[in-house]
Here is the input.
Amino acid sequence: MDTTVKIVSIHLVAAVAAALIATAFTIGILGFTNHVFAFVIGVVILYFVGQLCQKLYGEDAKGFSTWLWDGILPFGFFWFILWTILTNYL
Here is the structure.
């Protein structure tokens, strides 16, 4: 399997986890609501997943173009869309 597919897959799985956590903070499942904290949690998850991919794939995951197109954009789009859907329907 291509390294790009692996990196994007890891980021999409992390985006699902980030969306679930962000939704929990947004609708108040944990006892309080805080949209800003939900956003910050998602950004922190994105950072650590990016560092994990950097460790796993080394030279194949270097460079701004790879970070942007294989990590940040798939994570961001999937995270925001799923977060919005979950927030509206739960």
